[in-house]
Amino acid sequence: MPEIDLFNFFRWALFIFVSIYCTLITVQSLWGWYVWLASDDRYMTILRRYVILHGLRLRFKNVLGGCADLCAVVYRISADDVGPRPSKVDEQPVMTLGV
Predict the structure, then answer these.
(1) Partner of 63 at 20 to 30 A CA spacing, among 1, 52, 78, 90?
(2) What angle do CA 27, 30, 35 make, to 5 degrees?
């Protein structure tokens, strides 16, 4: 019978569940915004143009820099998990307060 690391199994199961959940919630939210902004009302047209204008004025350099930082952190965390795990934690001396 193969050994299954329950921590890794739970971690991957949680990753898959949260990814699907976040995708569904984001799609529902974007669809709601699309339906709300798609009306032909005069004020909705003004609001739609305002949202598009601010979307185009985003500072892509800041957004891409934040994404690059996040990718670097995720890579660093995953790189630490690849190596073999020690079988025993090294015991370090306990500091005393001179008592």
Answers:
(1) 78
(2) 120
Q: d(Cα 46, Cα 37) in Å, to the nearest integer?
A: 10
- What b/e sequence results for 4-26 when a residue is b if at least 16 CB atoms lie within 10 Å of its CB, and e otherwise? eeeeeeeeeeeeeeeeeeeeeee
pLDDT of 73-88, one tens digit each?
Answer: 877 777 655 555 555 5
Amino acid found at 62? N
Domain boundaries, given as residue ranges, for the chain? 1-38, 40-80
Spell out the residues 6+ positions from residue 51 whose beta carbon is closer than 8 angstroms to its own.
Answer: 37
